[in-house]
Write a structure and sequence with these properties.
alpha+beta; single chain; 9 strands
Length: 148
């Protein structure tokens, strides 16, 4: 059985502000904007090259705005991606790697500034937040692990 992650719901406080950030600032593709009725609106956007979209709007989740954490965008070149986002006005923390050499810890603990030593695939990260504080990471993947 195949199970494909295709949508992640992001809690936001201001739908139009979030739409502007994700489309105009980050460059995500605008897929849909359905204002169904007062208090129920669905906006779907997709990161360039991704098979998974994000949805935000009104009446979609009871999670507090800004509470999404650990969302990952995979990039081939972390330095290029950080430069592009910074050029678009996004405040980016990184690149950095975790002092364990594995996946990053929650929050900012154990972060070591700079690229991971020898720049292994999956080892270097950068982070930013959307206007509500939803947390996003860039993760550099140059060679996929077996089975991926």
């Amino acid at each position: 059985m195949e199970l494909k992650l295709e949508v992640v719901v992001i809690p936001v406080s201001d739908v139009d502000k979030a739409k502007e950030f994700y489309i105009d600032t980050l460059g995500f593709r605008a897929d849909a904007d359905f204002p169904i009725h007062d208090g129920y609106r669905i906006v779907q956007v997709t990161p360039p090259g991704s098979a998974c979209s994000i949805i935000f709007g009104e009446g979609l989740t009871t999670a507090p705005a800004g509470s999404a954490q650990g969302l990952h965008l995979i990039v081939d070149d972390i330095e290029e991606a950080v430069g592009e986002l910074t050029g678009r006005g996004v405040a980016v923390d990184g690149p950095f790697h975790d002092d364990t050499g594995a996946f990053h810890h929650a929050g900012g603990t154990h972060r070591v500034p700079g690229l991971a030593p020898e720049r292994p695939s999956y080892g270097t990260f950068a982070a930013f937040t959307d206007p509500d504080g939803n947390e996003w990471f860039l993760q550099e993947v140059t060679v996929r692990a077996p089975g991926r």
